[in-house]
Amino acid sequence: MSGIVLHNYYRSSTSYRVRIALEMKGITYTYVPHHLRHGEHLEPAYLSVNPQGLVPALIWDDGTLLTQSLAIIEFLDEIRPEPALLPKDAAGRARVRMLSQMIACDIHPVNNLRVLTSLRTVFGAGDEDVVNWFRHWVNEGFQPLEKMLSSSPQTGTFCHGDTPGLADICLVAQVTNNGRFGVDMSPYPVISRINAACLELPAFQKAAPQNQPDAEG
Prior knowledge:
By secondary structure, the chain is α+β, with helices and mostly antiparallel strands.
């Protein structure tokens, strides 16, 4: 398989992040799905690509392997600078990374599939317990995120100003995932407004889970 290849899963929020960035940059790629709930990411063929057995994994056209969504997105931003996903100034870049990491490093890791599966299989949690766990950690992260976005003059149409970037990519992927767990978004009007603005954009629409070739009903 030649060219740029993205190993991912349609419902993975980390995969969604990378798909949005690829679409925003206008980068064409080959889509390779791995069904996480069927354990396809743990099969030897994929582990030979990414020993961590996680998605996404991006194979660049020179054969370079890149994993971890934030690292992939920053790589894309460096090699294809326009449209920029990070601000030009150091303080702005730090703010966008801060907002992004509040989602990608504090909310997502405790709510991803392998953690939720372990809650069931190791600790005997039922479906209601898992849903409550998911909602709890989203709210723990979204409450301060909402305050920071609503109180900052740097917040515009999007998380930082009036053009979408890395923080918006993380926000939209998380809000989309929230929908599967019935997270009440009414306490988060600024997050909801930014999410709605992003979903008006073609790149976010094309990258959406329901529009991927492996999407299920």
